[in-house]
Amino acid sequence: MTDTASLLLNWYDKHHRILPWRITPAEQARGMAPDPYRVWLSEVMLQQTTVEAVKAYFNKFTSQWPDISALAGASQDDILRAWAGLGYYSRARNLKACADKIMAGHGGVFPRELAGLRALPGIGDYTAAAIAAIAFNLPHAVVDGNVERVVSRLFCLTTPLPAAKAEIRIRTQGITPAERPGDFAQSMMDLGATICTPKRPSCFLCPLNEHCLALKNDEPQRLPLKAPKAEKPLRTGMAFVAISENSRVYLQKRPEKGLLGGMSEVPNYFAPGADKADLSRAPFATDWRYQGDITHVFTHFTLVLAIYRADNLPEHSDTGGWWVAVDKLKGEALPTVIKKAVAQVLPTAFNNTERKPADRNA
DNA sequence: TAAACGTGGTC
DNA sequence: TGACCAAGTTT
């Protein structure tokens, strides 16, 4: 084992984070083993998503669907409803497809080989290696954004990302130990998340500070270098909140693929440079009233929607959608941008009505 | 290879 | 306060 791996594992034994999906080194010593289902679920949820955002969703999913069989028994719509708000909804669609494939093609058991994992929907290079290392203790190089940052600094690699990925992978493989590769992978990610942070790294606390070439040669916070990002264009449009004579809201389903694929929505239209007052874009003709704009920032564009409202509509059923009571909207598969649009008209629609015990007598 | 694909938090 | 960032994958 390299000095680096040894130092990092010792640091991890003392300073590892406690996370709902994690088996700690002490628990492993007592014979507990990671559940591949929980490792997989957490890794998919954590793709481009913060630990804090994932915790509640992970707990909800594992309560509702404790194993791969239970998850495969759920419908895609069930899963999208539970995933709503977490973003990158293709992950939820692939989660269902992956569960189905494991049940139908692998006897309900996760493959242990990297290639078998890599072939499953929603599992790419990172997630395949992470599952193999964490769940099966196989010494694969697990390279996520944290590891890219740690390794770039440790070896002072000055090629900008993403071109540097190949070299980072080789360097990571070179320091990955045959013993405890799962803990090693998690130690690299914990180090990146808590010490070797993007902006002001705490190098004085770092177990690798005497080995870090960026710290020796340079300012580590400058690394990794990254290629410049494309500018974010603006799209404009309209969203239509239709309320029936029974105080229900009109929803429809988005196409299965692409932006917010498979999720539910209120009728809307947007495009670069689109008119925000073109009522021919409404799902049906009625007395639409303008309620102000909302702005929502996606990864690759900014969206400004003019919100329109109509009331006391008959609950027609000939336009492909359905009507949902306001107090049931929380349970629908609505992405955040659509919740914003609805909340512009119905500000309390998504309020948390749960009360903490202490509030009950207040 | 580059673009599509969400959201919420931080400084 | 807008830009950047977070355990990436797919096409």
UniProtKB/TrEMBL annotation:
Gene3D superfamilies: Helix-hairpin-Helix base-excision DNA repair enzymes (C-terminal), Hypothetical protein, domain 2, Nucleoside Triphosphate Pyrophosphohydrolase. Residues 45-194 form the HhH-GPD domain. Its EC number is 3.2.2.31. PROSITE patterns: ENDONUCLEASE_III_2. Keywords: 4Fe-4S, DNA damage, DNA repair, Glycosidase, Hydrolase, Iron, Iron-sulfur, Metal-binding. GO terms for biological process: base-excision repair; mismatch repair. Its cofactor is [4Fe-4S] cluster. Adenine glycosylase active on G-A mispairs. MutY also corrects error-prone DNA synthesis past GO lesions which are due to the oxidatively damaged form of guanine: 7,8-dihydro-8-oxoguanine (8-oxo-dGTP). Belongs to the Nth/MutY family. This is Adenine DNA glycosylase. It comes from Candidatus Tokpelaia hoelldobleri. The gene is mutY.
